[in-house]
Amino acid sequence: MNFDVIIIGSGIGGLVCANILAREGKRVCVLEKNKQFGGNLQTFVRDKLIFDSGVHYVGGLDKGQNLYKVFTYLGIMDQLHLERIDTNSFDGIIVGDDETVYPQAQGHENFIQQLLQYFPEEETALRSYCQKVKESCAAFPLYNLQIDGTLEQKTIASSISAKQTIEALTDDKKLQAVLAGNNILYAGDGAATPFHVHALIINSYIESSWKFIHGGSQIAKALVKQLRLYGGEILRHQKVTQLISEGDNIAYAETSTGEKFYAQQFISNISPVHTLQMTDNPLLKKIYRNRINNLPNTVSSFSINIVLHPQTLPYQSKNIYYHKEGYLWSANSYTAEDWPLLYGVFFTASNQYPGYAESVTILSNMRYEEVLPWADTFNTTLQETERGADYLAFKEQKAQQLLQQVYKKFPQLEAAIKKYYTITPLTYRDYIGSADGNMYGFAKDFENPLKTTLSTKTGVPNLFLTGQYLNMHGILGATLSGVLTAITVSGNDSIIEEIRNAD
After folding, report:
1. Could you report the per-residue pLDDT of 163-194, keeping only the tens digit for each?
2. How far is Cα 29 from Cα 232, in angstroms, rounded to an integer?
3. Residue range(s) defining the domain that contains residue 370
4. How far apart are CA 363 and CA 319, in angstroms?
5. Is 404 a member of any domain?
6. What is the pLDDT of residues 375-410, one digit of tens each?
7. C-alpha 409: how far from its chain's center?
């Protein structure tokens, strides 16, 4: 089979890139190893209820905002079924034993006004915080749907610590904890995380916050539908195992079925580490391979997906984040005894019983080392695995440990649970394709920003990268990465102007 472009992996970065290139007239084929397309957009069903594997809400989808413009340009915006989250509190932050649920609100002025109710002496700090968030976002042109700007701008913006920046704004420890209280969204680490990582993500939600009715997989389905309308192909159960070179270039991708897919250009939407393992092309120098292979990944996660008894738990149109006081920036260094030091709670509304939740997902961080005893077992579904009784006992013990913490803040949840299912770093590893189930790709480091900033280009002229491993995390980050890679591969800078003018 011969194409203009082969894209490995159907995460949102790959699908966005594929759609843009197909619109540009390229013959595009996406190869996906799983049954379901979409990477972290994938959903699964338990007890006839839909659960998201990774995407619980998204920002920037109001008319005129960055993700709205990209999706409008791609022709999928009007296909999405959305619910706007509570504008006065898209996220609620709980700090330690404090019973208050502090709001993070949509709209920068509203964000300030809602928190002023709890921190009336901190208006200067709150306004300075919002200003710094905006300034940080402005330093990343792609976030603003532009491709100009200098490396120096980005480097300066990436060289500032999130923890230190927030602490410099206010001496109020509680306000510090509230402003960064949802830092599980980017696996916040006080010793490494740059402020721009915090700013790019939080600003997107401040601009507008949305949940997907019936799951985030609708984005992937809409993108697949559009890709096929543009003449592109997408194939499932095609795990790429080798990228074979002829001369300087990659000539074809070989899959586990033995099929060979030839193309002029190849784009990897999977981990760069896995990508390098597929090819022995000598243009990928040892120093480049060592750099990629030694980059630290963000932490993985453990989640509980809960089916509720009908009409037992009121629905909350917001997400709740908890962290133990004093551990906001060090929660990834937990011990077996004090885990979890933080968690997020996500509610899904019941269609049958308005005002009530039908399901809840609880997410906490978990290091991959905890599941190493079963690392040589593999599974590609989210069903119970054959990893043995010890693994099942491990999952149950962790589930109870997490639930007992959550019950302290949500005592009504315990009686509302009908059934629950757990997901470990191994599930994410096998289902999504990252080596250690990491949540957000490579961990950024403000002390060495260039180290973890990857180009879409590699040393091989026709091999490119895309996805959240490159520059930004999450749905927005991976989407914009797909845009940037498509521009790089096509050589058509005007694409970004077309996106910016989409309405």
Report:
1. 999 999 999 999 999 999 999 999 999 999 99
2. 6
3. 299-439
4. 11
5. yes
6. 998 875 545 557 889 999 999 999 999 999 999 999
7. 26
User: Do 15 and 483 meet the contact criterion of CB atoms below 8 Å apart?
Assistant: no
CA distances for 179 relative to 129, 211, 328, 472, angstroms: 9, 21, 11, 20
The answer, yes or no, to whether residue 150 has pLDDT greater than 80, is no
For residue 228, being part of any structural domain is answered with: yes
Cα torsion angle, 146, 151, 154, 157, sign = negative
DSSP letter at 131 equals: H
pLDDT digits (tens, 9 = 90+) for 70-124: 999 999 999 999 999 999 999 999 999 999 999 999 999 999 999 999 999 999 9
- The verdict on residue 346 lying in a domain is yes
**Residues 466, 467, 472: CA angle, nearest 5 degrees:** 115
- 196 and 263, same domain (yes or no): no
Q: For residue 303, how many C-alpha atoms fall within 13 Å in the half-sphere facing its CB? A: 26
Mean pLDDT score, 220-243: 96
The DSSP code for 253 is: E
Q: Which of the residue ranges 250-264, 302-316, 373-387 would you say has the lowest mean pLDDT?
A: 373-387
Please give the structure tokens belonging to residue 477: 């980050």
C-alpha span between 503 and 72 (Å, rounded): 6
Q: Where are the alpha helices (DSSP H) in 256-336?
A: 272-277, 286-293
**Confidence (pLDDT) at 54:** 77
Q: Give dist(CA 306, CA 444) in Å, integer.
A: 32
Q: How many helices (H) and strands (E) does the chain have?
A: 16, 19
pLDDT digit string (tens) for 312-333? 999 999 999 999 999 999 999 9
Give the phi and the psi of residue 249 in degrees, each rounded to 5. -100, 160
Q: Answer yes or no: do 303 and 435 share one domain.
A: yes
Split into its structural domains, the chain has a count of 3
Rounded to 5°, angle at Cα 484 from 481 and 486: 110
Cβ–Cβ contacts within 10 Å for residue 228, how many? 12
**Same domain, yes or no, for 75 and 196?**
no
Residue 277: count other Cβ atoms within 10 Å of its Cβ: 15
CB-based burial label for 136 (10 Å; 0-12, 13-18, 19+): buried
Q: Tell me, what's the pLDDT at 148? A: 66
Backbone CA torsion sign across 237, 276, 299, 212: negative
